Predict the 3D structure of the following.
Amino acid sequence: MTDRPSRILVVDDEVGMREGCRRILAAENYEVETAEDGQAALEKFKAAGGFDVVISDLKMPRMGGMDLIEALHVIDEDALLLVITAYATIDTAVDATKRGAYGYIPKPFTPDELLLHVRNGLEKRALRIEAKALREERERRLLEVAFERSKSTTILHCMTDGVLVVNREGRIVLRNAALSRILPSCAEEPMAAPVVEAVDLPELVSLVMEVVQADAPIIASKELTIGPCTYMVNAAPVLEPSGETLGAVAVLRDITALKKLEIAKSMFVSMVAHELKSPLATIESSLNIVLTGIAGEDPERDRQMMQRALLRATTLRTLVSDLLNLTAIETGNFSLKRQHADLCSIVRETVDAYTDKAAEKNVTLHLECQDASPIDPILADPNAVRSIVTNLVDNAVKYTPEGGQVNVRVDGNGLYARVVVKDSGIGMSAAERDRIFDEFYRVKNDYTAHVPGTGLGLTLVRRLVDMHQGRIDVDSAPGKGSAFAVSLPTVAYATGM
Amino acid sequence: MSDVKKVLLVDDDADLVAVNRAVLENHGFAIATAYSGPKGLVAAKAEAPDLIVLDVMMGTNSEGFDLARALKKDEATKHIPLIMVTSVNTTVPFKFEPDAKYLPVDRFLEKPLAPEALLKEVQGMLS
Ligand SMILES: Nc1ncnc2c1ncn2[C@@H]1O[C@H](COP(=O)(O)OP(=O)(O)OP(=O)(O)O)[C@@H](O)[C@H]1O
Ligand SMILES: [Mg+2]
């Protein structure tokens, strides 16, 4: 078993006996100690941290062999004791074995007899140690198994997916907490209830039973609607190592959010397609009549028609670039390059760019920007701000009939710098105002029917303003004009100084 | 050639109305226009056209349908033939067919409609 020589303690009050035993045993390479009575033996035993075998006489002064057996077993319940005794006391020897000695050896004995008994004892001890190790090992395994089970149970109950397991007879053997939440009625049924009775969802039941009853292992999947939610259900057989089906496990994953996203996406795509299709159809028709001459010859009218077609094409291109910008913002691929910027000069540039357009329409475009009291610099992306202001001025000019005014003003309060674009145009109702920031929303009336646009301008404005932690306010009434105010944080405010 | 026939074009796309107007005028029709459903009903009564061509998708998705139903209910306009033009068929999975109750129109045409095709339809219905 080990390289270490076995250690033996010989206890006898006769020195001849002690030394005789020592010689015999030492010759066999055992490590031998001796003691002259029970008391001394006990002390040596304690001091040495145990012996493999203790050979002891019964009758000794101070403490006899009987008492030594008991005392030793208190210290080490596996201690092995061999009793040496004379014929006359053979009954006592039998008594000693009953008390825990593993054997006795009657006096007088030959060296071989002694060695035989010692070897028996050592074998016994080795077996005992091994058995003990095995016992401990088994207990540890059992503990581990119990722990593993509680661990997997915990994991199972923490899962957000619902898990349902049925056995070969279609009876419920396991369901986790999520499943009980998804199917509260099932949670009330006792364990081992037939799934057909416990689950009032025929599609789920048939899916599970299909797997249980299949001849060859199959994995079945299905989308199920439970209340307001949609679940992706996957059912698979639970197999024995031999390949035999023990039952089935069904996992229910909530895919409601994914579904909603899918619907929103396809709605968006069809909306974009529609927005592209109408102007394209108009451009197509315009080109068509000019090329075929189906509307007769009228060069001036044709020129005007081409002009409108060109405008529509430009609008389409704007739509596409607005879409790209919006997508970039939404997917996080759009980063602001915020820097110290002067709102006044950005607004002035934009207004200048619109002077011609406004004059063409006979709309007065006026800019109010006090150079006397300069506005605090803002922390903003100049291109984004340009885009914001351009969209507001563009709308104001577009939605103001001939002879009207557009007034642009810049002011600030130290925390925010603000640009207000006010027009005397067609205005809008409160219901319309609530929707103008929606993608593609355009107010439809006799006036706007003649105004090209995509309905994405203000959507983009709102996103850009939000990205700057700014705010946008709208004041408008039908026929009374509109005022759009965008406030952007100043450098001082944005940097907390 | 008898008297001039009048066609009312109802569509929120002013450019498309202008194109169709040019084609139909060139072939001897008189044209009236309206750019929204409600205005379409007013124009139908005021102009007493011989035919109405209307787009389904206006301000709201149902504006064209609402107008068609209103026109067929009104004593003054119920006799006027109606052509509906729309791209609805391509965006919804089911097909529209003229239906006395829900879709009381005489012809249902899909957008985009070539100017020539519209001209043929109008000429066919007014001959
Ligand atoms: N100053 C305004 N006065 C009246 N109505 C306005 C004004 N600004 C916006 N609107 C209404 O809000 C709608 C949405 O505006 P938005 O700028 O998003 O789109 P658009 O101008 O139609 O198209 P785009 O700017 O993308 O070319 C407009 O169609 C219009 O009906
Ligand atoms: Mg706009």
